[in-house]
Structures
1.
Amino acid sequence: MATAVIEEKSGKVVIRNIGLLLSGDIDHPILEADTLVIHDGLITAVGKEKDCDTEGAKTIIDAKQTCVAPGLIDSHVHPVFGDWTPRQGQLGWIDSTMHGGVTTMISAGEVHLPGRPKDIVGLKALAITAQRAFDNFRPGGVKVIAGAPVIEKGMTEQDFKDLAEAGVTLLGEVGLGSVKAGYEAKEMVAWARKHGIQSTIHTGGPSIPGSGLIDKDVVLEADADVIGHINGGHTSLPEAHVCELCEKSSRAIEIVHNGNERVAIAAAKAALELKCPHRVILGTDGPAGSGVQPLGMLRMVALLSSLANIPAELVFCFATGNTARIRNLNCGLIEVGRAADFVFMDRAQHTAGRTLLESVQLGDIPGVGMVMIDGIVRCGRSRNTPPATEVPVVVH
Ligand SMILES: [Zn+2]
């Protein structure tokens, strides 16, 4: 169940007998290595077993020839507090999502908080409280980067400076508050950027009653760091406008589960045609009206690989290394010095695919056999995915 951030360190951990090691790096997605060594939550070696110092490990894991990938990063979630979502009245949704291979989540605004304050002092206080609360408490071990204020008319540069100094690193979706005009959003996004706060803009039609339309011209004028749910959340802009955004903006192209699936495929293809696959990142946009999707990230990977015809090892990079680089996170890539956050996967039992990657390219989601965060095993065989053919074993 839920665990606090402050806990014992992993010590030395060795993961051996890896069948396929996905790097998260879209320029080099598959590594020629079968062993990972970790010390106190960070990767210290990646290589062949004979070349790695595996002596004296506190924990040894036999990956049983399964696939190890960086833990998935959900670029777009709407948490509130703890492991509870009032939107659908559910408990345990973050822990459940960890069973879907997600090890980091990024808040796009704590918008579902009942009675969410919209005055400036109140929205700043909420953001700082949410940032602190999720920094101190990790449901299922998942790193939830929260405290994403929804900007409102009347905010000044000093407000963004105050938020940054208090530890806030993100804005909630621009456009969910009273700031909906391009020129207003542009000024506040620039203030945020100046003070080191990253921004995401809502793209498309209203999400729920009370929210509004953000069209392509507003997205381009505001120039937020992330074109949030470019495929709509739920209602998409016309496909031609989405392709225009991919072409005219240089910002991150975020594709989500709770959006238009046809346009998700079009956006991914447009990014590849424009030779900017590094800009594509994935999220769920859950919890939302569509509910909670513990397997939402894996479903996005399978959707884009199978229907946009993109090799699965590249699509996994959309959900890991691309997001880590764009969001400046110390996870998402298998490299020395990065966080030991991994998902162990194998082809689901009875998939038509002969390998894990082929099964994903055929549209099946993989079976998760283990999830590790900061070098600590958080779950074994997933309670949510179809059963993996083979699962890793903790030797000791
Ligand atoms: Zn939205």
2.
Amino acid sequence: MTRLEKILDFIPDSARTVADVGYDHGFLIEKLVTGLPPRRVIGIEIQEGLDQRFWSRSRLPRRDFEPLIDFRRGDGLQPLVPGEADCIVMAGIGEGTIRRIIEAGRGAMQGSETLVLVPSHPPTGLFHDLYAMGWAITREDIHLEKGYFYHLSTLCSISSLPAGKVRPQFVGETLPENHPLLKPYAAYIKKRMIRAFRNAHRQPPLRKALIVYLNRILGKPPLDDLLPE
Ligand SMILES: C[S@@+](CC[C@H](N)C(=O)[O-])C[C@H]1O[C@@H](n2cnc3c(N)ncnc32)[C@H](O)[C@@H]1O
């Protein structure tokens, strides 16, 4: 499966209207409106003119598919009306931007059942922050394509989930320990963090908890040279 096919697989069948934030070329949109179940898409882009570029590039007959695709220009969820989309997808966008879009778009997300996130780079503190905003991971996977790791997740509103369930807040927490990409992925994230946070003493508690978690996956002592105590 390609990254795009996996993203499609992460969108629940129950979602009949999907908002694709940052659709760019619109490859996901094409798959959504031509596949099953039948779906309507709201494509949101910050860049101007990408709707016209889509219709010039795509082989989909415009007359047949225009009623199914609603292109809107704007920042994040600003162009979305609450309750319009059952599922909101953000793929190929950085974790900082995703966090900001969700934070600013709380109102627009009311009535949306699921979020599907595939950040452009492996996320670190994103799910911890989203948990604090009321969203928890219900499904995740790691995908490797052309040498790049991608983290895919489906999130639901915590209030819609059964009470008392342990809520994963770090990448990979719902995956089986023998997932073939879990260890290489943990090593990759840790390497990125080492580069970004050389001074261990400045690590906030979340980063420390994440490193302890990654070291557990990697079979290493919880506190290593990155986190001397
Ligand atoms: C790398 S492309 C990803 C395209 C596609 N979603 C994918 O995963 O293959 C990221 C797209 O997100 C758009 N984008 C970035 N920030 C955005 C924002 N705040 N609101 C809407 N679109 C945004 C960019 O203009 C760009 O077209």
